[in-house]
Design brief:
The chain is largely without helices or strands and about 30 residues long. It has one domain. About 0% of the residues lie in helices and about 0% in strands. The chain has no helices and no strands.
Length: about 30
């Protein structure tokens, strides 16, 4: 628990690959 992809970032606060996240919203870099 705690690993949900949200706008290209994990719930912990780490930015993950946007290719696996939804493109409907821009990723927070």
């Amino acid at each position: 628990m705690g690993y949900e992809l949200v706008e290209g970032r994990l719930e912990q606060g780490r930015i993950v690959e946007v290719s696996r996240t939804d493109y409907s919203r821009p990723a927070d870099r």
